[in-house]
Amino acid sequence: MCAVTTDQQAGPLTGTVLDHRYRVDALIATGGMSGVYRGLDLRLDRPVALKIMDSRYSGDEHFLTRFQREARAVARLKHPGLVAVHDQGLDGQHPFLVMELVEGGTLRELLRERGPMPPHAVVAVLRPVLGGLAVAHRAGLVHRDIKPENVLISDDGEVKLADFGLVRAMAEAKITSTSVILGTAAYLAPEQVATGETDSRGDVYAVGVLVYELLTGVTPFTGDTPLAVAYQRMDRDVPAPSSVITGVPTQFDDFVACATARDPAYRFADAAEMGEELDAIATELFLPPFRVPAPRHSAAHQSALHQSAPTHHLGAGTATPGGHTKAYERDELPPQEPASDADAPEPTGRFAGIELSEFQWERQRARRAVLFWVVAVLTLAGLCAAGAWTLGSNLQNLL
To answer: Residue 197 CB: number of other CB atoms within 10 A?
Structure first.
């Protein structure tokens, strides 16, 4: 994988205007096949995010047709857990997508800053992600590349899933072939590795791996190459998160096990079913509500401050354990670089600067509050019943 770079001050397209409407401003991040820029819709005077694809796609009619079709389908999806798509087009040598600008950062950046999450913080992340994914699944759309880089967190605590449809469009481009695995190695479902095909249950598998990573701070499989990482899930189950970090409830072990079953038939059918089980677990464990914090030192924040932020390569070596979305040739893949100490998460006893023991105290307080109201309701019901019985017993005397 390409290493993280911090010396670029502007992208190659900074300052240009796409389609006589969208001004390209600061570069936020780049990946293997695209770059994401902060931009401005000159017609509506509205800040936007511009995802600009590599010029190699501009002459591929298969890709352009699929890209346009997927953009239209995703633009019809409406849910607060999805990044809105406003427009798409082709300007010169660059296909581009115009999206809602989320002021904040990525879940990957939050994990790098603050380490593993306690269960109720994981629930706060998953609820909007699964809610948005469920809307897409009902519409017949599959994401195919769920990972922390594609989960955005706003400064207001909103959590949104981005990048629907791009993997499918790239998979059908002429630059790929039957010898290619397309996606992000750490999150691919076994059937994606075996055949390249998937459905909603492939997204469920990726979310299961994401849950494991949120709870433990690491992905379940490692290897010398992305292909080695991808193939491990063919004959190995994702281990229980509690085997890596103490304090994980058994309900989350079972949740991850169901989501990442190697046989798709044993997984949750789709994001809606997975979301229902998540809500049941949160209720059973009395998990308190939580507002997910945006990362403080995100690339998006830097681009807003300087309008020419350092480039953070999505999925690059030390920043992204899983790697970025890529067409991986089965017979020749670049090795992954080992993680550096600088990118190691905080000790697992803390999250968002708060001791995990305080989260446990919040959970106990939530349980006590529920018990208090249960007792209050039962007491009130008992008093009403006693009053009704007394009134009924003396009704004839009163008459």
So the answer is: 10
* Tens-digit pLDDT profile for residues 294-352: 999 888 888 777 654 444 443 333 334 455 555 444 444 444 344 344 444 444 455 54
As a residue count, the chain comes to 399
Question: Is 172 buried (19+), middle (13-18) or exposed (0-12) by CB count in 10 A?
Answer: middle
CATH of the domain spanning 17-352: 1.10.510.10
Asked about 145 being catalytic, the answer comes back as yes
Among the listed residues 145, 163, 203, 270, the single catalytic one is 145
CA-CA distance, 24 to 246, in Å (whole number)?
Answer: 46
Q: Where in the chain are the domains?
A: 17-352, 356-391
Give the burial class of 310: count Cβ atoms within 10 A of its Cβ; 0-12 exposed, 13-18 middle, 19 or more buried: middle
The pTM (predicted TM-score) of the whole model is 0.76
Taking the C-alpha atoms of residue 237 and residue 190, their distance in angstroms, rounded to an integer, is 10
Give tens-digit pLDDT for 249-295.
999 999 999 999 999 999 999 999 999 999 999 999 999 999 999 99
**What's the rounded Cα separation, in Å, for the pair 47 and 12?**
20
